[in-house]
Amino acid sequence: MALLQRTFEKRELRDPSLIRAIFSNTWLAPLWLVARLYLGYQWLLAGSHKVWGEGRWIAVSGPDGLPLRNFWQNAIAIPEQGRPAISYDWYRHFLTFMVNHEWYRWFSWVIALGETTVGILLIVGAFAGLAALAGAFLNFNFMLAGSASINPVLFVIALLILFGWKTAGWIGVDRWLLPALGTPWQPGRVFRRVLKGRVANEECPVCQMPVDPATSPASAYSGLIYLSCCPVCKERLDAQPARYIAGLGPAVPVPAEG
Amino acid sequence: MNKVLALVAGVTAWAAVGATAVLIVFNMGVKNQVLMFLPILAVVVAAWAIGELVTERVFTGHEKGM
To answer: Contact at 8 Å (CB) between A50 and A108?
Structure first.
C-alpha cells in the first residue's frame, strides 16, 4: 500500500530553467515566429494546390477527391516485390475502408480546407498550438501512408511549436486571444465575464491580499473560479489547491469588470 | 473605446497578414518561393509594429499570469 502511495502520489516535477526559457519565455518569440511562418507557408502552399488551380481536389466538374483516391490506392497497394508503402495493417484496412466507401469525396474537402486553415492560423499566430497539433496530425497520417517527402521535418517543427504553444503566437493574434479566452484550467477575461457569478473569493486564498476580478490570475476548481493576487500565489494555489481552498466559503458574486 | 480601437487595429493588421498570404500563395506560381515569401514577411513586420505600438500599449498588463 505504501509502495502504491509513493508511486502514485501527486508530485509535480518542475521543468529545468532552460526548458522554461525555450518554451515558456517570450524572449524566443521571434524564433517561434520564424518557425510558424515557415510551417504555415508550407501548409498554405500545400492547401492552395488542393483548393485552387487545375489540379485541385475539390469543387471540380466530376467527383471530388479523385487525386486523393489515387493516393490512397497507391498507398494500400501491395507490390509483388519489395515492401508495401504502409507498414501497419490496421492503417491499410482503414484506408481501404475509406476507398471502398468513397470517403475521398468529402475527405478531400477536410484535407484541402484543413491544410489551408492550418497554414493561415500559423501565419497569423491564432491558436498556434492547436494549428500545429492539427498540422502534426496531418503529417503523421501522410507518414503512416508511406509518404515521407518533407513530412518528417514539418512534423518536428509542429511538435516544437506545440510544446511552445504559450509563446509561439506571442508575435501574432495569440498575444491577445489567449489571455482573452484563457485555458480550461485558467479562464480568460471572456469566460470570467460569463462565469463571474462563480468566482469564489474576494481575497487571495494564499496570502489574503485583495484580488481584482478583471486582472488577477484565475484557477478553476470544482466548477468555481479562484482568483489569486499574483502569479506566484496562483502557482502555490495550483500546487496545493486543497490546502488553500478548504477554508473558503460559498460562491460570492463579484461586480462585472469595466 | 480606446481598448476596442486598439484591439480592432491589432486584429485587422493580423487579418491583413492572413489575407495577403492567401492572395499571394493562391495567385502566384511556386517557381520563386523566396519572392512569394518576402511580401508576407513584410506584412508580418507591419502587423507586429502595429501590435506593439498600438494594441499592446493599451493592453499592457492584461496577459500577466497566463
So the answer is: yes
User: Is this prediction's pTM over 0.90?
Assistant: no
Question: What is the tens place of the pLDDT at every residue in A2-60?
Answer: 888 888 887 778 888 999 889 989 999 999 999 999 999 999 999 998 998 788 889 88
Which among A124, A126, A217 is the nearest to B65, CB-wise?
Answer: A217
Q: Using a CB-CB distance cutoff of 8 angstroms, which residues of chain B are in contact with residue A43?
A: none
Please provide residue A213's backbone torsions phi and psi, each rounded to the nearest 5 degrees: -55, -25
Backbone region of residue A103 per phi and psi (left: phi > 0; alpha: psi in -120 to 50; beta: other values): alpha
Domain count, chain B: 1
Q: Looking at A36-96, which runs of residues are DSSP E strands?
A: none
Alpha carbon distance A124, A118 (integer Å): 10
Which residue in A45, A178, A189, A238 has the most chain B C-beta atoms within 10 A of its own C-beta, making it the best mutation to test that interface?
Answer: A45
Report the length, in residues, of chain B: 66
Partners of A175 on chain B (C-beta within 8 Å) are 51, 56, 63
Residue ranges making up the domain that contains B11 = 2-59
Residue B66 lies in a domain: no
Domain-embedded: residue B43: yes
Give A178's contacts in chain B (Cβ within 8 Å): 63, 66
| Interface residue of B8, B17, B34 to substitute, partner A, most A CBs within 10 Å | B17
Is the ipTM here above 0.90? no
Let me know if residue B65 belongs to a domain. no
pLDDT in tens, A81-130: 888 888 899 999 999 999 999 999 999 999 999 999 999 999 999 999 99
Give the separation between CA A138 and CA A126, rounded to whole angstroms. 18
| B64 lies in some domain | no
